[in-house]
Amino acid sequence: MVSNKNIFKVLVLISAFFLLLHKTEAQESFDSLKLKLPKHYFKTVIVLDAYRKPNQSISDTLDFLSKKLKSYGVNQFIFSLTTPLATFEHPVYDSTSAQKNTHLLLTANYMLLQPTFNGIPTHNLVKAGIGVRLIVNSGKKGIWFIDAAPFVTGDVSYSSSKPYYRMASTIVYSHNKSARFNWRIGITKSFMWGNRNYLPFIGLRFGRLDRTNLSIQFPRSISLNIPVNPKFTISFYTKPQGGMFNFSNHDSLYYIGSASSFHFTRYEINTGFRADVRVNDWFNFYVALGLSTKNNVTFYSEKANKEKRNTPYHTYFYNQNMKPTGFFNAGLVFKFGKTKSYYNNKNLYDAIDLNNTIDGGDNNTSNGNTQIPIESKNLKKQDLNLKSVQDLVDYNDF
What is the pTM of this model? Predict the structure, then answer.
């Protein structure tokens, strides 16, 4: 007769055997998955942006060109892309430093601008470029941001207009005193103000990026950003918009008839309200409207401004300030790929915000910091722990 003690030993041996077998099979199954963890902290982001400012009569009735042009309005479409090329992790040897990394990104942009003058046919002005940017996370409180965005402009309505090459560039040091306070200092070459200007870059932010915050980023924007919930954010902002474009002289606007083209520049200050909606993990959209002020249109001759290279243009043959009007802006944001975990990392949040604030091509668009998660007010502690690692693994992959 078999004793209870012997039966117990047999059951223990059988249980140990199946446990070992299950563990071996699980390990083999895990190894066979050959899971590829994300390589980057940035997703590929595509923004499609449409802007409209209605026609308004040019009040100056004395100038010859004003009478010929009659009115002025703007139709604008922008495509922009940002995608990571490489991410370099740097080992940390002391307990006082957080993770250190360097990010290399590719930017691409395309703009179709249609300045609408009732007195002449519509001109299709195109700006396109490809650039690179380097973001260095020191692992402590500082972020270095370096952006080079060469682009070409041309008037595709007429073949007589030759392309013109320019480059926007920015270098900024961003310091995170805490998650609630950040300051930035740097320099930028910008065409937003209708000229080729070298301007200081000065930034201040009060409040966390994933909560209500006031962001002052000269010369880019001033905005008060208010997350209503994880999927809906509103903001009140003011920012410049403009640029320099090559414009065909097909309509003989420039008095020297032999000139095939000249430089058309515009700028304005947009002040308004914007709403961002995060539909899901890969798609957002936004709408904005408000008042356009400080509107200016200027025509420059390249020949008359050749004396000093890389300095602002001073000689123009037409300059006109316009009255304020309303504007409407809308955009679609698409996000692709998976990222390494960066939840609640103030430096990486700041790197994402820098990447959003300074867009490629000097277009001054924004994707709404779509990669920075907005916390729910009802989020529990166990949900926070899961959220900190959820971007490492997509359970659908299993």
Answer: 0.84
